[in-house]
Design goal:
- The protein has 70 residues and is mainly alpha-helical.
- The protein has one domain: Orthogonal Bundle (434 Repressor (Amino-terminal Domain)), CATH 1.10.260.40.
- It is 56% helix and 9% strand.
- It has five helices and two strands; from the N terminus they run E-H-H-H-H-H-E.
- It has a two-stranded antiparallel ribbon with strand order 1-2.
- Helix 2 packs across helix 3.
- The radius of gyration is 12 Å and the shape is globular.
- The two termini are 15 Å apart.
Length: 70
């Protein structure tokens, strides 16, 4: 499963979602879905803008987590 780490990255950098909205121009509703890991499809344009604003790599924002087998 792919999981977004934006909430952790923002916390580690002591940034708020509001600051990222202002720095990136991403609409708050869109950013909220990324912060709360509710995105079904990751937009490369959005990912690019977030990486530019946060000066990070895509791997800093997303990770693969192996699902536990039942």
């Amino acid at each position: 499963m792919i999981r977004l780490r934006l909430d952790k990255l923002l916390k580690d950098r002591k940034w708020t979602a509001y600051r990222l909205t202002k720095e990136s121009g991403i609409h708050p509703n869109v950013l909220s879905k990324y912060v709360n890991n509710q995105v079904r499809e990751i937009s490369l344009d959005t990912l690019n803008v977030m990486c530019g604003a946060l000066k990070c790599q895509p791997g800093d924002l997303i990770e693969y987590v192996r699902e536990k087998k039942s």
